[in-house]
Amino acid sequence: MFKARMKFAKEGRAKYISHLDLMHTMQRAMARCQMPLWFTEGFNQHAYVSVVLPLSTGYSGECEFLNFNITSESVPVNAVEALNDVLPEGLRAIEIYPLEDGGMKVGAIAWSQYRITWEFDGAVPAGFVRNVRALFGRQAVEIVKRSKRGEKTVNMCDLIRDLTITENDTAVIAVVTTAAGNDNLSPEYLTRAVGQYLPQYDIPFSTYHRMNVFTADGTPFR
Fold first, then answer.
1. 37-46, 51-60, 162-171: which has the minimum mean pLDDT?
2. What angle do CA 99, 108, 26 make, to 5 degrees?
3. pTM given for the model
4. Which is nearest to 7 in space by CA: 53, 63, 56?
5. In the predicted model, is pLDDT for residue 45 greater than 70?
6. Do the beta carbons of residue 97 and residue 75 sit within 8 Å?
7. CB neighbours of 128 closer than 8 A, spacing ≥ 6?
8. Cα(32)–Cα(153) distance, rounded to whole angstroms?
9. How many other CB atoms are found less than 10 A from the CB of residue 5?
10. Which helix (H) or strand (E) holds 133?
């Protein structure tokens, strides 16, 4: 038995699959393509699979990771192709590789990069991009952050590493790198901050897509 990791994408309608359903889907797909998964022993045997840094339901991503244990001595040849043949629409395996010496630790993840798309009915409102850039160019943008431990006011600027904003005819694209791990910042808080500090603008539709995850020194997680 050895540990393996799969990098995968979760896009389209698949972004609405819950975390628990995603794990069940991956286990069923691996069984269908005869991936030699390792199962726990005992009365209630089950395959060990674990999603690294799970996405919120409704988010898409192209840099998602699944850890699992395998009974063969190596990753089966054409494992990615075999898995993609049985995965449902929107889920796509990108690569599967062994975790030598345990691989990069999940706890090393410090940053997540997201693409936020703000869409409007018609043209982008005049001054929107300029004012949003000015908002997040401040030294402090305070917002109430909610978690299982309660609520606290945080300065979002301390939890954002970089931010670029562009626009097209009907949408504004923000690419932002926010803190991950225990002191994380969901990209939805940028949308909430715009609503709080720039109430003159109504954003009728927002989508969130994770593009990458990094360690503290900026190394892409793998």
1. 37-46
2. 50
3. 0.92
4. 63
5. no
6. yes
7. 167, 172, 198, 201
8. 48
9. 20
10. helix 128-136
